[in-house]
Design goal:
The protein has 247 residues and is α/β, with parallel strands linked by helices. Helices cover 29% and strands 34% of the residues. Strand 9 and strand 10 form a beta hairpin. Bound molecules: S-adenosylmethionine.
């Protein structure tokens, strides 16, 4: 069967919501809302950066936030735009790379969640993204960003293989973790065209201290760091860490 290689998310986009159907975006939106309240931020406008197919933005809209989304992958954004259109939710979506947020309106809260920042493969790139976000956040506004930890990568992505199928497609996924880089390889078979598309995703896994150091050098202050979806300080054993950075 012919196999073509596609850029990350460009073909996964159409099945992303199926692959991520275990993710509770309602809970995640409530959690984000609780972090904003905890840090006394009542945002007039929230930007969900690397918003993917817009699931979190949609939940935030339902929770009465004035929300916008941005993502670097056109195909993911198209899915987000279509979902919001069908629901008649007027959520603006922008095609933007984390490293260039030109012409986005100022916001009181910017989010970048579900390991999206891990796609930046160097601390220098994270520093540039922090500069960009800082430029568009209003004074006293916050940047809420999460990271996938090494513990999570070792536990769930160390040479893991899985397969699944849905309406008109099936996929095999091979995940592994090596020297601070997490790889996810997807082979997606689209049954209507009999085409196999391969996507390779790479995420750099950073230690908590590396992130803290790079934020310390940035114009942001760390005002909160939380393990998982709770409110306790993170450890290297947390699967995920949410940081709240203040301007
Ligand atoms: C794991 S998905 C998370 C999507 C969404 N936040 C969610 O919770 O479902 C990672 C997203 O990051 C986006 N992304 C990766 N690198 C990016 C970059 N440099 N600029 C903008 N978006 C990026 C991808 O296109 C993808 O939509």
């Amino acid at each position: 069967m012919p196999t073509t290689e596609a850029t990350p998310y460009s073909r996964l986009a159409t099945i992303y919501d199926h692959v991520m159907r275990h993710v509770d975006y309602v809970h995640w939106a409530h959690y984000v809302s609780s972090l904003l309240a905890r840090h006394k931020v009542k945002p007039n406008r929230v930007l969900d950066l690397a918003c993917g197919t817009g699931s979190l933005a949609i939940q935030l809209y339902r929770q009465k936030f004035d929300v916008m989304g941005a993502d670097g992958c056109r195909e993911m954004l198209d899915m987000a735009i279509e979902k919001a259109r069908k629901l008649r939710y007027p959520i603006p979506f922008y095609h933007r790379n984390l490293l260039d947020l030109s012409d986005l309106p100022p916001c009181d809260a910017v989010l970048c969640l579900y390991d999206s920042i891990n796609y930046l493969m160097s601390l220098e790139m994270i520093a540039s993204a922090l500069e960009e976000v800082h430029r568009i956040v209003n004074l006293n506004g916050v940047f809420v960003v999460d990271i996938c930890t090494e513990s999570n990568s070792r536990q769930y992505f160390s040479n893991m293989q899985s397969e699944d199928s849905g309406d008109g497609f099936s996929y095999r996924r091979h995940s592994y973790y090596e020297k601070g880089v997490q790889y996810n390889k997807f082979d997606i078979h689209f049954e209507d065209t009999d085409e196999v598309v391969k996507e390779v995703h790479q995420q750099r896994i950073y230690s908590l201290s590396a992130i803290e150091e790079i934020v310390d050098k940035s114009p942001f202050d760390i005002v909160g760091a939380y393990g998982g979806f709770g409110y306790a300080p993170p450890t290297e054993f947390s699967d995920r860490v949410h940081f709240v950075l203040k301007k």
